[in-house]
Amino acid sequence: MTTRSDTTTLAWLTLLAFTVLALFAFPQVAWLKTYPEALTLPVQAQLNAMMDTVVAFCGPFFRAISAALDVPMRLVRDLLAFLPWPVTVIIFTGLAWAATGWRLAAFTLATMLYMLVIGYWAESMNSLALVAVSVPAAVMIGFGFGTLGFFSARARRPIEMLLDLLQTVPAFAYLLPILLLFGFGPVVGLIASVMYAFPPMVRNTMLGLSRVGPEVIESGAMSGATPGQLFWQVRVPSAKRQLLLGVNQTTMAAFSMVIIASIIGGTADIGWEVLSTMRKAQFGESLLAGIVIALMAMVMDRITAGFATRDVVDDVAPDTAFHKQHPVLMITVIAAVTAFALAQSVPALKAWPEAWEFYPADILNNAVTWLTVTYAASIALIKQYAFFFLMLPLKIGLKQTISPFSWGFEFTATLQAIYVVAAAAISLLAAARWSPRAGVWTALALLTLFFGLTQLPWPAVLGAATLLAWQLSGWRLALGTAVSLLFLVVSGVWPQTMLSVYLCGLAVALSFGLGTLLGIAAAEFKPVSAVLRPINDTLQTMPLFVILIPFVMIFKIGEFTALLAIMAYAIVPAIRYAEHGLRNVSAEVVEAARSMGATQWQLLWQVKVPLAWPVMMLGLNQTIMYGIAMLVIAALVGTNGLGQQVYIGLGDADFGVGIVAGIGMAIIAIIADRLTQAATRNSGTSRDEVMI
Fold first, then answer.
1. How far, in Å, CA of 33 to CA of 458, rounded?
2. Any idea what the Cα angle at residue 528 is, between residues 522 and 533, rounded to 5°?
3. Using CA atoms, how far apart are residues 638 and 630, in angstroms rounded to an integer?
4. Residues 456, 505 contacting (CB under 8 angstroms)
5. Are 450 and 400 in contact (CB under 8 A)?
């Protein structure tokens, strides 16, 4: 009897045979490598026609919405501009103190003073106005959709599909339809921020409401509560912590849109400062402005997370005076009122004097110039080795990469034959040592290294992804994978898709490998964890544009710079999940292994790592998501692929080109997410079991 395992192995062998024949025996069959242009479907043109119709009929309605939203936006901006700087500083410092204590209050005070001293106070307040309006709007919309998804199983599925689309399609891809519908201006940036920020609130609302225990609901029902009271007075308060975590994530998502919103908002905010100075290659100026966004994001992250996770102990007597119940609030109000009164007579408290500003952009620019000149040879050597010995072989293969210019020798026919024989021997050894399927995978990997990922026949890549999906999760995922990838083929963006897969795949592989090792070191050694934690926090809260700045400063424009920028962002979840998984291995299991005489090395690699591996796989899932999110930002520094197509669509006002490229990136992200989720389920852990 033929088992499913035998069928899968036979399918992999068939795929390997087809790939070999397509690469070696059928080079003259051009359609195997490049899908015929004559058969490409006019998807972009049809989408443009559809969008033109929508704009013609619905444009006035959306412009009216834009005008209505402009009112609260202006009010908040005018209010922040009107308040003297000490009042704003005192309010945020008081919030930080109430959230977690004096340490966060001190950090918040230092952050606000940095904005003043550096001369970016007005721009920072304009950005804060965007967040102050977009976050409440996103929270309300997210709570509404989350509640609907909780109560209606029929609505939950399309809501989850919408969330997957919004969280995987790059924000730049839906900037163009927003521009076409709502026009140009600050409100358009607000709408883009809301669209990007509300999905986390939806997910946390559904999760929080579903986790309320049935005994809590039964207790409320026995007390005579109506359905409305059960929801608002029982279920919502019980889910408060999860809902506040949703507010925290929504706030961070809104902050990450500050620079992107500036592109279409055209306002004098801190995001525009970063963007404009980056375009002028003013690295010192862009870094100083980027630090403002990073600090603002970290402050808001800590404040909202503090309110979400703190334990409220209600041991105050009901008849206690209000000022004794809320001492921090009273001190903050008194200090803010006093500062406002003093500012009316003290000009320096009304507006920070320019003479007190310190703007070290020239110092930073000179330091970067010194660094790049002094270590020019080392920097060039690092780029050269990484490009010729790592990136190009994966991209176009050893066959085209090896030459006297790149590797110092010619890749002759004899050397190619030796490689083929060695690859066959290694593949047979893997099949004998582990399984025939392992041998096939080894052969496919070595074949890819020889020809290059972007040179593989598209039917082979599509078949490999479909077969892997079938093996991990069954025919439904396999069918979805095949149809999705076939859409990319027939819509004419397959070459750009493979360029994106190459760069993002390499970055994810390096990030996951290095991040897992660092996470293991952090779990085993507390000093390593203490060093890595603030670095991870900074990288995770820093807006994606800002991450580009130091790499562009040192390595200039190019694929290597993009690779480093993607890795800097994608490595964080790999570190966090590896450390989290190892630290939560059962103490009883560890103690049992020690009692059996296991050494520290054996305990780590034969006990802890295997048990923590399912959690590490969740880290791989998140590493992939982070890598794809950074891919479109990295396209700004000279990469090709789907990210570049998104910018082309935005620059040319071509909705079809931009949205198809955005959907392509979403397809890659969703397929990768489903595959890694399936692999994690097969290893025994679900994503909902791990909360970091």
1. 6
2. 80
3. 14
4. no
5. no
CA atoms lying within 13 Å on the CB side of residue 491:
25
DSSP assignment string, 285-353: HHHHHHHHHHHHHHHHHHHHHHHHHPPP---S-TTS-HHHH-HHHHHHHHHHHHHHHHHTT-HHHHS--
Question: CA-to-CA distance for 149 and 144, rounded, in angstroms?
Answer: 9
Question: Packing angle between helix 494-524 and helix 526-541, nearest 10 degrees?
Answer: 150
What phi and psi values does residue 524 have, to the nearest 5 degrees? -90, -30
Burial 249-273 (b: 16+ CB within 10 A, else e): bbbbbbbbbbbbbbbbbebebbbbb
pLDDT tens for each residue of 68-89? 888 888 898 889 888 999 999 9
Q: How far apart are CA 172 and CA 193, in angstroms?
A: 11
Give me the amino acid identity at 446: L
Kind and range of the H or E run holding 595: helix 587-595
Please write the tens of the pLDDT for every residue from 563-616.
998 998 899 989 988 998 898 888 888 888 888 888 888 888 888 888 888 888
Q: E strands within 482-544?
A: none
Instruction: Identify residue 390 by its one-letter amino acid code.
Output: L
Residue 128, CB half-sphere, CA atoms under 13 Å: how many? Answer: 22
Nearest to 310 by CA among 219, 241, 365, 234: 241
Taken in order 221, 225, 229, 233, the sign of the CA dihedral is: negative
522-527 contacts at long range (C-beta below 8 A, 24 or more positions apart): 522/575, 522/578, 522/579, 523/578, 523/579, 523/582, 523/583, 523/608, 524/582, 524/604
Q: Compute CA distances 5 → 329, 476, 481, 636, whole Å.
A: 65, 18, 20, 45
Nearest-angstrom CA–CA distance, 207 and 213? 12
Distance between CA atoms of residues 297 and 481, nearest Å: 36
CB contact set of 421 (below 8 Å; sequence gap of 6+): none
Neighbour tally for 195: CB within 10 Å:
19
CB-based burial, 474-507: b 16+ in 10 Å, e otherwise: eeebbebbbebbbbbbebbbbbbbbbbbbbbbbb
Task: Specify the length of the chain in residues.
Answer: 692
CB count in 10 Å sphere of residue 635: 24
- Cβ-based burial of 224 (10 A; exposed 0-12, middle 13-18, buried ≥19): exposed
Q: For residue 287, count other CB atoms closer than 10 A to its CB.
A: 21
Query: Does 19 score more than 60 pLDDT?
Result: yes
User: Which tens digits make up the pLDDT trace of 293-346?
Assistant: 888 888 887 887 787 766 554 445 555 655 566 688 888 889 999 999 998 888
Q: Are 198 and 145 in contact (CB under 8 A)?
A: yes
Tell me which amino acid residue 613 is: W
Q: By the 8 A CB rule, do 392 and 401 touch? A: yes
Cβ–Cβ under 8 Å, residues 563 and 503: yes
